[in-house]
Design goal:
By secondary structure, the protein is α+β, with helices and mostly antiparallel strands. It has two domains: 287 residues, DD-peptidase/beta-lactamase superfamily (Beta-lactamase, 3-Layer(aba) Sandwich), CATH 3.40.710; 83 residues, Lipocalin (Beta Barrel). The strands form four sheets. It has an eight-stranded antiparallel β-barrel with strand order 12-13-14-15-16-17-18-19. The protein has a seven-stranded antiparallel beta sheet with strand order 1-4-3-10-9-8-7, sandwiched between helices. A hairpin with a 2-residue loop joins β3 and β4.
Length: 510
């Protein structure tokens, strides 16, 4: 289920995280022992080791919620407790400070009742595979083998983008593939169980069995708008294969991974059997193990990277150094500037861009079956972090831990969002109650219950919405807001769901 924040029919759940079933403590979950918790592996640690250990302890004991209410005391949370709460067996972290990896550490276990996570344990990077693959594509641009703005069909050999009414008006370019603006379909990919038939790349592109995804096709005008498309990166993978004439894992190894010291990383799918003992095993949100331990992703450029936070931190540092003109092991300073410049909305070439001035940064998250991860790097000042978990509920854990890191390192970003709680007459809530359709297959149900406003999706969990004003509400679970909109008669006819800069409209249907 690889995606940035989106994935097919679960679009609503990814965007409105309060609806994802992350029930607390209904059943006991595997909890790391004191021996398993915190297997260390530091890289480039400063001489004051005791000071660093104290810093790490403050981070481990200072996790923060994504949303807080102004005037209410916030009680910091312990990482071990939150791992248990989120049924996340394992976590691995690398923190970048002053342009180097200040520390890297593993927590918990790679498999329940198994070996401890270390800084060398492999995780599936999921969609963070994309910016690393984008770096390889840009290297070929730098070498003159590809052009960002020419028709990709000119270089594609084994497969061509099918012509239709949209491609007749505007061809698909590499720049559009990398910035999710090519008008291509297929948001993300579910992967394949280890004993299941695995399709070829051409079968994935055409949606032919045993592929479990739809065909990759242009269904909107290329370049007209941003829309996250894992399908575009499958096409990119085929393009790189045709141009370089090498198998994709070998191409990535030679072009990017070896060049910047990502020594533990590989795009090999399936993961070679001799490396299975290095890999974390994936788990679902309720603590169940993924069938076969993990899924296989032939969509390597979109979702296939196996790596560590330390290796991804090296990728972050190389981008930072290249942007500053201090290291150009893969890309020139000029090409790196293009990669980290807005193309469509807040997307660069392969990576999301946020903030400005001292807060300018690049980021990408990832979600494969049983794995959640996030990468953050600031353009200047040499700061950043990579967090990887082996659980479907690990994304929320990552958010809380990233807030603790941000607080400790004095980042202006990723701190809890402060909300002011408004005093609203609960009698108003009945006018908001109803079913709201995000798309023909997905809806939200809003109910008024004993003076509280609740929201529910397809799972049995109801979440409370707290008032910020008479029409605007929020949840303490995630930084997401719902605004109810009224027509000329004063009747609620739709809601607006906002999270992480994304807005979705849901019409009231009953």
């Amino acid at each position: 289920m690889t995606h940035l924040l989106l994935h097919r029919s679960v679009l609503w759940a990814a965007l409105f995280g309060i609806l994802v079933s992350l029930s607390a403590g209904a059943n006991e979950s595997p909890s790391p022992s004191s021996e398993e918790f915190g297997a260390a592996g530091r890289v480039g640690a400063p001489q004051n080791v005791d000071g660093l250990e104290e810093r790490i302890k403050r981070i481990e004991n200072g996790l923060l919620p994504p949303v807080i209410i102004k005037g209410q005391r916030v009680e910091p949370m312990k990482l071990a407790d939150r791992m248990k709460f989120y049924k996340t067996p394992g976590l691995s972290v690398a923190v970048i400070n002053h342009g180097r990896i200040e520390w890297a550490r593993g927590y918990g276990v790679r498999e329940v009742n198994g070996d401890a996570i270390t800084a060398e344990t492999l995780f599936q990077a999921a969609s963070i595979s994309k910016p690393v693959a984008a770096m390889a594509a840009l290297r070929l641009v730098q070498e003159g083998k590809l052009n960002l703005d020419e028709d990709v069909n000119r270089k594609l050999v084994s497969w061509k983008v099918p012509e239709n009414e949209f491609t007749k008006q505007k061809v698909v370019t590499l720049r559009e593939l990398l910035s999710h603006s090519a008008g291509l379909t297929v948001n993300g990919f579910g992967g394949y169980e280890r004993d299941a038939p695995v399709p070829t790349l051409l079968q994935v592109l055409d949606g032919v069995k045993p592929a479990n995804s739809e065909p990759v096709r242009v269904d909107t005008l290329p370049g007209a708008k941003w829309r996250y498309a894992g399908g575009g990166y499958v096409l990119l993978q085929q393009l790189l294969l045709d141009v370089a004439g090498k198998q994709f894992p070998a191409l990535m190894q030679n072009t990017v991974l070896a060049q910047i010291g990502m020594t533990h990383s590989t795009y090999e799918q399936p993961l070679p059997k001799e490396r299975w003992p290095e890999a974390a095993v994936g788990y679902g949100a309720t603590g169940e193990k993924v069938q076969g331990d993990w899924h296989i992703y032939p969509e390597m450029a979109a979702a296939g990277l196996w790596t560590t936070p330390t290796d991804l931190a090296s990728f972050v540092i190389e981008l930072q150094q290249s942007l500053a003109g201090k290291s150009n092991k893969v890309l020139s300073q000029e090409i790196t500037k293009q990669m980290l410049s807005p193309q469509v909305d807040d997307w660069g070439l392969g990576i999301k861009l946020l903030g400005k001035d001292s807060s300018a940064r690049f980021t990408h998250s990832g979600a494969n079956e049983g794995f959640r991860c996030i990468l953050v790097g600031y353009n200047s000042a040499g700061r950043g972090a990579v967090l990887m978990t082996n659980s479907d509920s690990g994304g929320k854990l990552n958010d809380e831990l990233l807030a603790s890191i941000a607080k400790e390192y004095d980042w202006a970003d990723y701190l809890p969002k402060e909300k002011v709680l408004a005093h609203i007459d609960p009698k108003l809530y009945s006018s908001y109650a109803g079913q709201y359709e995000l798309n023909p297959k997905v809806s939200l149900t809003v109910t008024a219950e004993e003076g509280r406003l609740m929201v529910q999706a397809s799972d049995p969990i109801k979440r409370e919405l707290l008032p910020e004003s008479e029409t605007r509400f929020f949840s303490l679970a995630v930084p997401a807001e719902i605004t109810f909109e009224k027509d000329a008669k004063g009747e609620v006819f739709q809601l607006i769901l906002e999270q992480s800069g994304t807005r979705l409209t849901a019409k009231k249907i009953k």
